[in-house]
Amino acid sequence: MRVLPFNSSKSTMTAKELVELISDKVPRQVQIDVLKRTFPQGTTRGDEFSIGSLHGESGKSLKIDINPRSPYFMKGQDFNGGVGIGGIVKILMEGQGLRLPEIKDMFADYIDETRSFVREDAPANPVKPQINHQTPYDAEYKYYNSDGNIICLVRKYLVRDGAGNPILDSHGKPKKEFRQFTGDHPYPRMPDVRPLYNIPNILASDKVIWVEGEKCADALNNIGHTATCTMGGAGMLTKKSATQYDFSPLQGKEVILWQDNDTAGRRVAELVQELSLNAGARSVTMLTPPRGKPEGWDAADAISEDFDINNFLNTTSKNTKQNINLLDESLLVSRFTGTAPEQKFLVDATFPLNVPIILSASGDAGKGMLTLDLGMKVASGAYGQNSFGGLVKEFGNVIIFTAEDDEGEMHRRIERLDPDGKRFNYDHELRVVSLPNFGGVFPIMQNIHGEYSTSQEFERIYEQILQINNLKLIIFDPLASFVHADVNADPAAGAALTGLLSQIGSETGASVMMCHHMTKVKDDTVISTPEQARNLIRGTSALVDGVRCAFTLWQLDEKTAKRRCKELNIEYQRNRCFDGAIVKSNGPANRTIRRFVRDTYTGLLVDRTDEIEQLNMGTNRDVRKTALYEWIARCEREGRALCQQGTADGILNRMTDADSPEALHHLSQRVIDGIVRELIVGGRISKYSFTTSGGRKWLGTMSGVMSRGEYEATTARDNI
């Protein structure tokens, strides 16, 4: 038995005792992360981590049990089915040639033992000698403090075979190990406080790029950028070890995070974003790696392939968070100059682009059919198509994830919606994933011991999503199947989910729609207003409050449904007539209640609002025309003129004004346009412009202040 030197203690620890320490002290997820980083080809399924061999090939020949409640926890199975000593310890010793002190260092944030080690059961492969100051290295990186004095040396050692040739990892890059040397200590040792790399240049710069390693940082520094990284790489930085890192040099800086193109890179970048903001960074932007790049692609790879770095930094999809500083003059209202950016809509005045959306409906409404129809229209690229009461405005790629309908059912629905086979013209723009045919649903978000996080399954799929260009719509149907957390009762779960959906929308540029259920009501309950419908959306208020848009469908009571069918001269059937409306929107929206009737062949709810309104226009036309004229005149006199459509002062958007005529409520834009046109042709109103407004779009009477050029606009509408 041979004692391996570790620290200064004379007490000893065996491999078995180290295993017990790891099982007691180290969180399960941290153990999994270590295994995944060490063996990227390994897979996790339930409580098993599997690889094909000790050298890390893909496969399932070697399994390690990572369930702390299992009697075989951390023991593992070798290729003959026998139980090996201490699974994770044994595999790191035999597969990576690591010694016990080095393995202990990988979990140093959780293990505070200072004993030296006794090695029992020598590994099958030769163990590398203890690395010290004299050991030859392949690269060296110097960490300086603000005074330019060296804090620590980080040395890189390539992993080589018996012939001295570098061994490649799963990305085709040389395997490497890093050791930190602090002061005069002869053996690797982390400093008590782990500094950022390149501190002197950070302090002299306003903008700093964080990457995962010193090589990438130097590559960016050499072409004129200021780059940094955290000591020990992405694998060493965890939520529990974060207190040992000093992010204070980033105070007041604009920080850009350029993570490696893999799941682990994304996870550590999210942590660095949080830590940078906590340290006082002015803003922190997380870049999305370019689509089509291989796994593990990083800043050094980008520079070696002559990638356009500046364009990537300035134009890529980003997720930016900012610290608020009320003393910063950049917050002054004077910054809002020029033309305001246009709000882009997936469906005009209904569903905004690149935001989270909830579509809620009562049972058997046909949400799946409606969203499939929307997806097909967005993918088709054909203009002039309507959905949910509005014109489809954006076209591109669509992904639909359905947790309940198999491929047979989806095939039948698509065939009913598209009997002529037009879908084959946009085959590459629409992806339909029937999860029952792929082994079941995957969680987007999950609750693990009170902490909300994305699942590994979703992270893998999301990496693929980010590689799809011109993505306009992502649909998850239904929400409950994709969220393993109690969004119905826990406000924190609702807030976490909507925050995740907002991030997905921002990074992909797509609208993210979640189909959701309404609370069941008694049969005799009559829903007549959007407010009533909103209150029946299942879940906490945080769920609806956190999305940018919510659309609700509700079934009509029998009496109202029969009257509607009679108006349209169609046969009454149960579950045929629905109303729907925008019940929450953070921006301009058409809040008209839409009237839907189910097509008996396709099963699709068809918007027949305009048809119903035209049928009723005969008796109500004069009343509505008078009401609109009087409202236009009143708004003109009071300096709050109306526009026909579009902007915040469009007639539809101003229906929230307290003095808006009830006779105009729930009218569609098309009907309003018809009334305005009649008033203009009849010589009662006209369109005007004034100095601050631009074009002729403001509605006024023929003898009012606008006609005389005396109009004075005001924004004081608080007392209306």
Structure commentary:
It is a single chain. The protein has 720 residues and is an alpha/beta fold. The chain folds into 4 domains: 2-119, no CATH class; 139-327, 3-Layer(aba) Sandwich (Dna Topoisomerase Vi A Subunit, Chain: A, domain 2), CATH 3.40.1360.10; 345-607, 3-Layer(aba) Sandwich (Rossmann fold), CATH 3.40.50; 613-701, no CATH class. Helices cover 29% and strands 20% of the residues. The chain has 20 helices and 33 strands. The strands form 9 sheets. Strands 21-20-24-26-17-27-28-29-30 form a 9-stranded mixed β-sheet. The chain has a 5-stranded mixed β-sheet with strand order 11-10-12-13-14. α19 (609-637) crosses α20. The longest helix has 29 residues, at 609-637. The radius of gyration is 32 Å and the shape is elongated. The protein starts with a strand and ends in a 19-residue tail after the last strand. The relative contact order is 0.06. Residues 1-10, 71-86, 118-129 and 716-720 have low confidence and may be disordered.
